[in-house]
Amino acid sequence: MKSYIALALAAPVLVSAQQSMWGQCGGIGWTGPTNCNPPAACSTLNPYYAQCLSSVGGPTTTARTTTTTARTTTTTTRTTTPVTTPSTTPRTSTTTTTSSAPVGTGLDALIKSKGKKYVGFCADPATLNIAQNVAILRAEAGQVTPENSMKWQSIEPSQNSYSWGNADTLANWAQTNGKIIRGHTFVWHSQLPSWVSNINNKATLTTVIQNHIAQVAGRYKGKIYAWDVANEVFNDDGTRRSSVFSNVFGDWTFLDVAFRAARAADPDAKLCLNDYNLDYSGAKLNNFVQLVKDLIARGVPIDCVGTQSHLVVGNGAIPSFKSTLDALASTGLEVQITELDIRTNASPSSQQITQQGNDYRSVASACIKTAACSGITIWGVSDKDSWVPQTFSGQGYALLWDNNYQKKTTAYNGFVAGINS
Known about the structure:
Blueprint: E1 4-7, E2 24-26, E3 40-46, E4 49-54, E5 68-71, E6 77-78, E7 95-96, H1 107-112, E8 118-123, H2 131-140, E9 143-146, H3 152-155, H4 165-176, E10 180-188, H5 194-197, H6 202-219, E11 226-231, H7 244-249, H8 253-265, E12 270-275, H9 283-297, E13 304-307, E14 310-312, H10 321-329, E15 334-345, H11 350-368, E16 373-378, H12 388-391, E17 395-396, H13 409-419
Parallel strand pairs: 8-9, 8-16, 9-10, 10-11, 11-12, 12-13, 13-15, 14-15, 15-16
Antiparallel strand pairs: 1-5, 2-4, 3-4, 6-7, 15-17
Pathway: Glycan degradation; xylan degradation
Pfam family, one: Glyco_hydro_10
GO biological process, one term: xylan catabolic process
């Protein structure tokens, strides 16, 4: 069941097509070009993904060619149903996908055909127990992000006492179904166990951060494409958020500790800084970009930046979303849209439904047209399992599938149109 073989990059093969920077060039199931336009070189990031990265100091901080391992069995059956976050029960009726990417359906295959890395969705064991949700994930997703199961409170509720069950379930499901994983998250002010929140000594907190990351990243080493090493470190006004980490350290160096610990524990994973409300030009976006540049300047190992992108239908920031991605790309790092949803009224008007389709198109198009943007994660499959209604009273309808796991044609087609733009 866990039979592995070494996956090494073959010498470049002469083919008629070459991938540009950030494009996929190998991995389990990949049938496209396996060489890259200079100065990019094809680098293996995990068993499922090899990518064209800079070999001469281009827009990525570290181009890795480390040999990784891959499962010997690579055939995956997928249903033609859309994607959701909540389920695992397998459907009885499936169709076997072919090596060719479907046109206009299968969001992950479609975005890969445009040279990007993935369309993903958040998931966890609770949603992996829902047959409709799993069927959608199998058909549409290339990546999953644990919604809650890898957060500190979930994994290490008591010091040095670990609860791996839910995270293991998600990781095993992803491997079995040929999906890459974005790990989420190590250092965050929320969902922290009280024993961490109550630490008031810098040396103690440093050791605790290092140990937690070593244990978690070490357990899933080689199985994670990218880690959200730190999450939501800014207030909306662009100031440093108050947390046990920032308060005890008194500066940004808690990030240095976390990123260095993550690199030591999982050297081949991408390491990301993630935040929300970066979708508006202003102090928060500007200071986020400057912080990343400062981290790079002092040699902190950081590979990617994430914008959560929890948006509202018709918001004025959406038409200029490309500008947000451009600002993030100015760091020289890979840019990822990490938690996309676009909420509106729980019972939207036809005008709001139309606008939502336009907004999904705008966001997807912005990623396609930004070379540094590597992929998009949607924060859930079905509205039934979305965090939005319980957080924003009277709002919802934020995802691409409705409460009954039926595809919302306008939103879905808008997203497809954005990928095809």
